[in-house]
Amino acid sequence: xxxxxxxxxxxKLFSSxxxxxxxxxxxxxxxxxxxxxxxxxxxxxxxIASGVGPTEGLVTAIIAxxxxxxxxxxxxxxxxxxxxxxxxxxxxxxxxxxxGLAIATIMAGVILVLMGVFKLGTIIKFMPYPIIxxxxxxxxxxxxxxxxxxxxxxxxxxVPANFIDKWICYFNNVGNINWVSLAVGVASILIIxxxxxxxxxxxxxxxxIIVMTxxxxxxxxxxxxxxxxxxxxxxxxxxxxxxxLPALAEGESLFSTMQALxxxxxxxxxxxxxxxxxxxxxxxxxxxxxxxxxxxxxxxxLANIVVPFFxxxxxxxxxxxTMANINNGGRTPIAGIVHTVxxxxxxxxxxxxxxxxxxxxxAGVLIIVSYNMSGWRTIRSMCRQSRxxxxxxxxxxxxxxxxxxxxxxxxxxxxxxxxxxxRIMESTNISVLRDEIEVHHDGERSDERITIPxxxxxxxxxxxxxxxIATRFEELTRMRTPMxxxxxxxxxxxxxxxxxxxxxxxFIEAALGEGQTVILSGVNPQVFSALRRARIVEMVGEENxxxxxxxxxxxxxxxxxxxxx
Length: 565
Known about the structure:
Helix content: 55-70%
Number of domains: 2
Strand order of the largest sheet: 3-6-7-8-9
Structural class: alpha/beta
Distance between the termini: 68 Å
Low-confidence stretches: none
Mean pLDDT: 87
Radius of gyration: 31 Å
């Protein structure tokens, strides 16, 4: 019972309904209708690009969008399929089939719920920015590369999944270009690009689909040209989405499938968490609200647990649709719920129209999506920053494109951590002083230098004392003939880890074994607590752990005087 009380799960829907009025309802309904219209082409395009189909994209936008709006931690977040998942979903479908995708999505949903339950919402925000920019740019390039077959109307039945093989396949089929398909795709791109100059409220992607669907229908009717449509490749069902259990591949057990899918499920969860929380943070800045990150993760997780049982794909918060919601007056989760109703009506009533949408037009929509995702301006500006950030960014980007997102995030994180550790190591300095200490006006003393008594040496650690620096401290203490009294000055040691404690323990044991005295100076309360727990304070004696260098030197002078007697 106490565990349930400690869970930070407070959906914004319930708090938003307090003081809810007719004016807010009208604004939410208008925003929901507009966002629903905006979401139609994106849901269809993302479903097709992921290797599943338009129905799966719409079902995901309906069911996941409803759950995320009703149970999420943001007032205005719009959930559904996004371009970031296309690469992962396509790879899973190719290797494990639709059943494997459903299991991976459910596992990712469970991971997201656990993240929210254990209040990891704030920690997710600490993902290094170069990694986010790198994998987002890599995903954009991959999405762009997947659309060439439909844009050029090459008619390739099986496009290789590998990036390099994919482009080799394209070049081998250059002679099969359908120029009418290419014209439809290019016209769609131009409509989307120039539509904001005519009207910023009308979604360019939807206008492109309406215009190009009409043009292609006329071309087909008068036998001028036959451009491939959604209906030529997919069959949209009629009626409500049906509940179904995930089907495993023949001969595969549930446990072995889950074991194989765990890495990609974790990637889906991490990517979903990052994208949804970044979207919620941007939305907060616009509407002046504050989302609940843990509730948002739980809502996202529940959506991803439920949606696979209706044939859906992974979903997360979509920043473009969220901003469209805000810009059109949406201020509560009711707008998000209305948007799912619009999509449901499209699925139930306009299936025949959806089947007429030309594939090159959807390719044009996704090419614009990939361009907006690429963040090339951000990449260009980051190229002026540190070499380590540039290395992490381009390594993540290239690995995302050439291999997959799972490897890219893993390697990117390891690189970021290693380079961060190197920076800390470079900023941490250890020095051995025997004559005098130079004072850097930090509040300990006001004079310029402190004289060190005879038979006393000071080891000054300037920075965190962790595993990356502990070995250097150990090597330094062994290089010199030790003095009888050794002061370890730790005034700038902000934290100490287990390796630092271990090396300090070895140093103290060796010193005590030689009959020397060790004094610890300037130990802050946090470090002192860690040293007490590790029994370091007990080893040196509490009288030899002092908070000021003056006190440490006075104690050392007292002990040195006894040695001379």
